[in-house]
Amino acid sequence: MPQINLLPDNVHVDVGTIYCIGRNYIKHIQELENEVNAEPVLFLKPAASLITQHREIELPAFSSDVHHETELVLLVGREGRNVSEDHALHHIAGIAIGLDLTARDTQTALREKGLPWTVSKGFETAACVSDFLPTQHFQDLGALEFSLHVNGELRQQGDTSLMIFSVPRIVAFISSIVTLEPGDLIYTGTPHGVAALAPADRLDLAMGELRATFTVKSA
Ligand code: MG
Questions:
Q1: What is residue 33's predicted lDDT score, i.e. its pLDDT?
Q2: SS3 assignment for 84-138
Q3: C-beta of residue 161 within 8 angstroms of C-beta of residue 6
């Protein structure tokens, strides 16, 4: 079972369901020419697609356009069903920075046919995540800045104050559909600047004190 690392005591947590929110930043919706939705767009990744910094990213053979999407990632610490926005943060044990890797060509083809996105979002190594810091380390989850550099060049800069659906709203929304369980992860959507990865790329993620580096396997 995949595990994440919760700092500062290096507690290893078994990962359950990986929830992802799509289309949560206006400029990213515009760059892909998508529509703004009244409700969060929710999809899943298999837990087996999750990697931490100990493994390289593997670009799948079926795609020639795998995009990085840099996202705030939440670790659920407490079971919750129909959680109110006021209580939402009590259910989040930790925060990380991660990548929702997306085979954009595959996703576009599936979307045009009205089919699920699973192949484009759920391939081996498609969910990358840093270590987690306890939520208390962050003053305000609604004002976190994060970034991605690829091969030393700034590619994405995020600011959670620009989210369409806030962290409490996301927790309330998912838990209105199904029970959130300890060990579940929630990817909260990417800001603009998504672009294709190439073999041997080096990806440096940063958010506050959190840092993570991933490399793409060489061809
Ligand atoms: Mg995403």
A1: 86
A2: CHHHHHHHEEEEEEEEECEEHHHHHHHHHCCCCCHHHHCCCCCEEECCEEEHHHC
A3: no
User: pLDDT band for position 184 (50/70/90)?
Assistant: very high
Span 49-77, average pLDDT = 97
pLDDT at 34: 87
Ligand 1 (ion): which residues have CB within 5 A? 69, 100, 190
Across the chain, mean pLDDT equals 96
Query: What separation in Å is there between the alpha carbon of 20 and the centre of ligand 1?
Result: 7
CATH number of 3-215: 3.90.850.10
Helical ranges in the chain per DSSP H = 26-31, 104-112, 118-121, 167-177
pLDDT tens for each residue of 68-90: 999 999 999 999 999 999 999 99
**CA separation for the pair 126, 91 (Å, rounded):** 25
Domain edges within the chain = 3-215
Query: Ligand 1 mean position to 69 CA, how many Å?
Result: 5
Contact between residue 35 and residue 81 where contact means Cβ atoms under 8 Å apart: no
Q: How far is the CA of 190 from the centre of ligand 1 (A)?
A: 5
- Mean pLDDT of the region 17-21: 98
